[in-house]
UniProtKB/TrEMBL annotation, chain A:
<dbReference type="InterPro" id="IPR003593">
    <property type="entry name" value="AAA+_ATPase"/>
</dbReference>
<keyword id="KW-0813">Transport</keyword>
<dbReference type="InterPro" id="IPR003439">
    <property type="entry name" value="ABC_transporter-like_ATP-bd"/>
</dbReference>
<dbReference type="Pfam" id="PF00005">
    <property type="entry name" value="ABC_tran"/>
</dbReference>
<dbReference type="InterPro" id="IPR050763">
    <property type="entry name" value="ABC_transporter_ATP-binding"/>
</dbReference>
<comment type="similarity">
    <text>Belongs to the ABC transporter superfamily.</text>
</comment>
<keyword id="KW-0046">Antibiotic resistance</keyword>
<keyword id="KW-0547">Nucleotide-binding</keyword>
<protein>
    <submittedName>
        <fullName>ABC transporter</fullName>
    </submittedName>
</protein>
Automatic annotation (TrEMBL), chain B:
<feature type="transmembrane region" description="Helical">
    <location>
        <begin position="183"/>
        <end position="201"/>
    </location>
</feature>
<dbReference type="InterPro" id="IPR013525">
    <property type="entry name" value="ABC2_TM"/>
</dbReference>
<protein>
    <recommendedName>
        <fullName>Transport permease protein</fullName>
    </recommendedName>
</protein>
<feature type="domain" description="ABC transmembrane type-2">
    <location>
        <begin position="22"/>
        <end position="257"/>
    </location>
</feature>
<feature type="transmembrane region" description="Helical">
    <location>
        <begin position="110"/>
        <end position="136"/>
    </location>
</feature>
<keyword id="KW-0813">Transport</keyword>
<keyword id="KW-0812">Transmembrane</keyword>
<dbReference type="InterPro" id="IPR047817">
    <property type="entry name" value="ABC2_TM_bact-type"/>
</dbReference>
<feature type="transmembrane region" description="Helical">
    <location>
        <begin position="148"/>
        <end position="171"/>
    </location>
</feature>
């Protein structure tokens, strides 16, 4: 029965050893990479796992995929414990990592897929068809007989994607899967991920491309220093922080009365104002506030007889929310 | 096709594409040099005769045949160990260990696939080495086929048995050269490749007895040395037992070693 991937109070610490005299001894406090994480990755949807670098995303994926053993807590895949039933779990999952090699350079794409198909015990007739489908899917049919060492980085990553699908996994763990891919292929991969989820595959996605997460994920877990700090839909997550619109204004020429009016406006609304000059030496203002103050800004400039050379408004994004939730100190700075 | 068969095919393809002829020459050079230097010493220093102690220890006065078989066996052992023991650390270094370990495939069939391919490549190397020895003037007696087959089986079990724990050590330590070269030096000294083990001090002799390769070599000597009236089967049985024990120990420590390697790369 497909019950999804469930982690309960998952923990992973890496012992740190230091030389003391002639011996390496464990350091007093081991480093927690994952600290009490409880997640659910249901079948048939894309779940996001977000966090800044070093938050514990890749370690979590390695535990879910049986590569690392948890130091504490439990992980089950369709009710099977990943430590006790590792081999059975491996039949149901696969991992696609961006920027990692994972394929054999001296074999061709077809030979790589054939070999991994054998390791997954895919029946011979099915494997032949599957290899053709996957090569077609990732656009490597014409290059299928070239050794991988002659591939570009993007072609290699496409082969890594095909390798990750060779066993028709019930759960797919994607760690930055579009890293290094050209826009059309990345777009195609996103469509594929959505299609896989629609077909019932449970997908866990980590990505630095937040538009990708907003487009694909129904539910997102946000982690920092190995712990869960927030969860919800991308929209709910963005709503959990004080969101700020940024109004950027460039004046045609310097005008002290306009500058004074904008400073007064910022004080009145308790907004954050920064003032500098652009490349052409024109005064440039950035006003950040939870509300969109563009109307008030334009009114203040016009009332003081100023001339606007440029005006943009940036609405709050998921990225703002992640930064605010995962590292509030950095945002405050 | 099984994991073993698939790994055999994979390694064969990689070897055909990546094995330079210069490497082949380098592999042969060590064996040829061993035979050549022994031949010079035998003719120029020993006057073409061996001492009574050699004949007593080996049951034969054919020193050049003894050295040639020993050099071939040493080439076989080092080449097989290099292939089998280094298989997983090579995967680790080339970034494919994780994609291997993600699959449900078991380690033993994988290692046997590597072994099967290594046997086919090493057989070619040994054949050329023995042919070169023939050109240099070494004349080998025709081996007894059944005993030669037993020697080949024994040697394969011995090197695979030793390679698996060695593979685990390499993965755990994250390095190959120090580990492999320490083993090669120890084997060359202790196992009786180029001189009888009875020449060794007692303590060293006991160390040699603990290595299955020493016993495999005794079966090989029984098959190839004229006049060496030795029963090969006790040595064959000991070799299988020792090789099997090494293999079991190796398989039991291989998974912890893999986890240690994955920890290391996760922390990197």
């Amino acid at each position: 029965m497909s019950t999804g991937i469930v982690t309960t109070d998952l923990r992973k610490t890496f012992p740190v050893r230091r030389w003391q005299g002639w011996r390496r001894r464990p350091a007093a406090a081991p480093v927690p990479a994952v600290d009490g994480l409880s997640l659910r990755i249901p079948p048939g949807q894309v779940t996001g796992l977000l966090g800044l670098n070093g938050a514990g995303k890749t370690t979590t994926i390695r535990i879910l995929s049986t590569l690392l053993r948890p130091s504490g807590g439990t992980v089950s895949v369709d009710g099977l414990d990943v430590v006790e039933h590792a081999r059975e779990v491996r039949r149901r999952i696969n991992v696609i990592s961006g920027g990692e090699r994972m394929v054999y350079d001296r074999l061709t794409a077809r030979e790589n897929l054939w070999y991994f198909g054998q390791l997954y015990d895919v029946p011979r007739a099915r494997l032949r068809v599957r290899i053709g489908e996957l090569l077609d899917l990732v656009g490597l049919t014409e290059a299928a007989r070239l050794p991988v060492e002659r591939y570009s980085r993007g072609m290699r990553q496409r082969l890594v994607i095909a390798r990750g699908l060779i066993n028709d996994p019930a759960y797919l763990l994607l760690d930055e899967p579009t890293l290094g891919l050209d826009a059309p292929i990345a777009h195609q991969l996103r469509a594929l991920i959505a299609q896989l989820a629609a077909d019932g595959v449970g997908v866990l996605l980590t990505s630095h491309y937040l538009a990708e997460v907003e487009q694909l994920c129904r539910h997102v877990y946000l982690i920092a220093r190995g712990s869960l700090v927030a969860q919800g839909s991308p929209a709910q997550l963005a709503g959990q922080t004080v969101r700020r619109h940024t109004v950027r204004l460039v004046l045609a020429e310097a005008d002290p009365s306009v500058t004074a009016a904008l400073r007064a406006l910022a004080v009145r609304h308790d907004a954050e104002l920064t003032v500098d000059v652009d490349d052409e030496g024109r005064p440039r203002f950035a006003l950040r506030h939870p509300e969109d103050l563009v109307g008030a800004v334009v009114t203040a400039v016009v009332q003081q007889g100023g001339a606007v050379a440029g005006l943009t408004v940036t609405p709050p994004t998921l990225e703002d929310a992640i930064l605010a939730l995962a590292d509030p100190a950095a945002v405050a700075r | 096709m099984s994991v073993m068969g698939a790994t055999f095919v994979r390694n064969w393809r990689i070897t055909v594409r990546a094995y330079p002829w210069t490497y082949f020459v380098g592999t042969l050079a060590t064996g040829v040099l061993t035979i050549g230097v022994s031949m010079l010493a035998y003719r120029a220093i020993g006057g073409g005769r061996v001492g009574a102690s050699f004949t007593a220890a080996t049951g034969s006065a054919d020193y050049l045949g003894y050295v040639t078989i020993g050099a071939a066996a040493l080439t076989f052992t080092t080449r097989m160990v290099l292939w089998v023991a280094k298989a997983q650390i090579t995967e680790y270094r080339e970034g494919t260990l994780e994609s291997q370990l993600l699959t449900p495939a078991r380690r033993l069939p994988y290692l046997l696939g590597v072994t099967a391919q290594a046997l086919s490549t090493t057989a070619v190397e040994i054949t050329v080495l023995v042919a070169v020895a023939g050109v240099l003037g070494v004349r080998l007696s025709v081996p007894e086929p059944l005993t030669l087959l037993a020697a080949t089986v024994a040697a394969t079990v011995a090197v695979v048995g030793m390679s698996v724990p060695l593979s685990a050590l390499m993965l755990a330590a994250g390095e190959a050269h120090i580990t492999q070269n320490t083993l090669f030096t120890a084997m060359a000294l202790l196992c009786g490749f180029t001189f009888p083990t009875s020449y060794l001090p007692q303590a060293a002799r006991w160390l040699g007895e603990a290595l299955p390769v020493t016993w495999a070599l005794r079966v090989l000597r029984a098959a190839t040395l004229p006049g060496a009236d030795v029963d090969p089967w006790p040595a064959f049985a000991v070799c299988l037992l020792l090789g099997g024990a090494y293999l079991l120990v190796g398989l039991s420590i291989l998974k912890p070693a893999e986890r240690r390697a994955l920890h290391r790369s996760a922390r990197a």
